[in-house]
Amino acid sequence: MNYLFPIIAACLVPVATALLGWFIHHLAASTFFNRILPARQQALAQQIGAFAGQQLSFSTIKSKLTDPDKIKNIIPLVEAHLDTFLREKLPKAMPVLSMFIGDSIVNQIKSHLVAELDTLFPVMINQYLDNVEKDLNIEKMITDKIAGISAEQLQQISRQMLGDGIAGFKLLGALTGFCCGLVALLFLIIF
């Protein structure tokens, strides 16, 4: 019976060090999410905002919004509004005109207006976006949004994103602890 105690004790060393390794990694993950991440939230927000500002330039957004194909997709909507305006709203606002405006005149006016708007839209949109660009700071917007997230939300989002990674980190701690226990046991046996 006395010979079993050293064997059991020897087997407990790797198990105890595995539990210790898991606990240390658990403590490290907890410290990261509860203390380090909230304390560094402002710096993190600034770095993410700066990165997003570099990656997402306003000129890229502007080129997407002023793409001629995108503008041409607006034309049918404008044409439908013009048709409603010329056939219904204008005669109600100016009843005298309804005596002179028929379908052919409405279609002519509409086609000329649509052609004019087709050339006017890109200019209008460009000018509008130039004005927006002066007031829009993508880096600051993203920084403010991230900095405005509560510490609890930031922790929750981080834990959701890193869920499997956290579990793997803790298992790595247990595995490392187990290996360290085996090495320590080997040294005890050898020396």
UniProtKB/TrEMBL annotation:
Transmembrane segments: 6-25, 169-190
Source organism, top-level taxon: Bacteria
Keyword set, alphabetical order: Membrane, Transmembrane, Transmembrane helix
Protein name: DUF445 family protein
Taxonomic placement: Bacteria, Pseudomonadati, Bacteroidota, Chitinophagia, Chitinophagales
